[in-house]
UniProtKB/TrEMBL annotation:
Coiled-coil intervals: none
Phylogenetic placement of the source organism: Bacteria, Bacillati, Actinomycetota, Actinomycetes, Micrococcales
Keyword ATP-binding: yes
This protein's UniProt keywords: ATP-binding, Ligase, Nucleotide-binding
Taxonomic superkingdom: Bacteria
Record's protein name: Putative glutamate--cysteine ligase 2
Organism: Paeniglutamicibacter psychrophenolicus
SUPFAM superfamilies xref list: Glutamine synthetase/guanido kinase
InterPro entries found in the cross-reference section: GCL_type2/YbdK_subfam, GCS2, Gln_synth/guanido_kin_cat_dom, YbdK
Family statement: Belongs to the glutamate--cysteine ligase type 2 family. YbdK subfamily.
GO molecular function ontology, one term from the record: ligase activity
EC top class named in words: ligase
The protein's role, per its UniProt record: ATP-dependent carboxylate-amine ligase which exhibits weak glutamate--cysteine ligase activity.
Keyword Repeat: no
Length: 389
């Protein structure tokens, strides 16, 4: 079974007015003190991000969906418990609904980014979900990257959770994608065919001196034996995070099997894929997406069904199929995080309500967790208790 893990980026916000607060250094100090007390038993991994209004929570590698989901919930609760001590909360919003002037985190790396990228870096207060899946080699990893390209906009649509930007409705389901694509190396790649070609491309990009580690939509991890899929917004509902992680692992496994069987990748040009990215960013699951098989518009419901059919064998083999089917129906019926944010705003026309409602959805835990006969998690969910240990 391939191992997988996630990195979730969160906003640190005022629990009353919803404004992002530059408190990551204080939260990280509290984390450091907690780790010193817990010692080797410390479980949670936290990291600062480009701006002080952000915090990243990182899971360990897991083999089962159930254990990964448990750590996702634990990580959200732990980070929030630290933020509370600083008078704040963490919330899973991929952009801030309220206007904000972010405060860059001061270190050598981020200072260089802000100096080089100017307004693009200064405005880049965006929160994503990154999924890492283990691969046996760089060669297998690049073969996977070549074969999952067309399916990535579907993940973006399912995770869309950033309709607001600078205090107004952007019109997009994932405006984070629009902001993120201002980075010089963001977006889909062409089919590369080999690890050698991939590393040559990375070296050529580095030689331009514009960027060292490219921000491709999916890439080989520079630090781990994994592929890293980076297209998703951070998900408001933790159940959606679990869904995206399950689908990404299934996509990686399906692509690796195709490579082993000699199935050639779809060589659709990256420029065509960019149109699919734009459609997913604009509409989420509310309208048409580009179908990965035809690269022509089709309903979101049909495209998501095609995605599940494509990875069905891998989902069955991992025991994740039942959970994914249930989550798919829930999202198609109730909407994504972008839907819920707009519903919150429509009630009273207050962006602060969008944030406070989102805090409640961010922090959920299963009221009844058990593993079904086929190994997939089956849960009833309730809000997390207000007092976090």
């Amino acid at each position: 079974m391939r191992t997988f893990g996630v990195e979730e980026e969160f906003l640190i916000v005022d629990p009353v007015n919803g404004v992002p607060l530059p408190l990551s250094a204080e939260v990280m100090d509290l984390h450091g003190a907690s780790v010193r007390v817990a010692g080797p038993s410390a479980r949670q991994m936290l990291s600062a991000e480009l701006h002080q209004e952000q915090l990243e929570v990182i899971t360990h590698p897991h083999s089962s969906l159930d254990s990964l989901a448990t750590e996702i919930l634990e990580g959200r609760a732990y980070a929030d418990s630290l933020a509370r001590k600083a008078g704040a909360r963490i919330v899973a919003l991929a952009t801030s609904p309220l206007a904000v002037s972010p405060h860059p985190t001061r270190n050598e790396r981020y200072d260089a980014l802000v100096e080089k990228y100017a307004l693009t870096a200064r405005e880049q207060l965006t929160c994503g979900l990154h999924v890492h899946v283990s691969v046996g080699s760089d060669e297998e990893g690049v073969a996977v990257l070549d074969r999952i390209r067309s399916w990535l906009p579907s993940l973006m649509a399912l995770s869309s959770n950033s309709p607001f930007w600078n205090g107004q409705d952007s019109g997009y389901a994932s405006f984070r994608t629009q902001a993120w694509n201002r980075w010089s190396s963001a977006g889909p790649m062409e089919v590369l065919g080999s690890a050698r070609a991939y590393h040559a491309l990375v070296a050529d990009i580095a030689a331009t001196t514009v960027v060292i580690n490219p921000d491709f939509d999916a890439r080989l991890s520079a630090r781990h034996p994994t592929v890293e899929i980076r297209v998703s917004d951070v998900c408001l509902d933790p159940r959606d995070t679990v869904l995206i992680a399950a689908l990404v692992r299934a996509l990686v496994e399906t692509a690796a099997r195709e490579w082993a069987a000699g199935v050639e990748p779809d060589r659709v040009p990256a420029m065509v894929l960019r149109q699919g990215v734009w459609m997913a960013s604009r509409w989420g699951i509310r309208a048409e997406l580009l179908h990965p098989a035809t690269h022509r518009p089709d309903t979101a419901r049909h495209v998501i069904s095609a995605l599940l059919d494509h990875v069905r064998d891998a989902l069955n083999d991992s025991g994740d199929a039942a959970y994914v089917e249930k989550a798919r129906h829930r999202i198609l019926s109730n909407g994504t995080g972008a839907t819920k944010q707009r519903q919150s705003y429509d009630r009273n026309g207050r962006l602060a309500d969008v944030v406070t409602d989102a805090i409640g959805i961010t922090h959920q835990e299963p009221d009844d967790r058990h593993t079904s006969a086929n190994g997939s998690p089956s849960w009833t969910w309730r809000p997390l208790a207000e007092a976090v240990a």
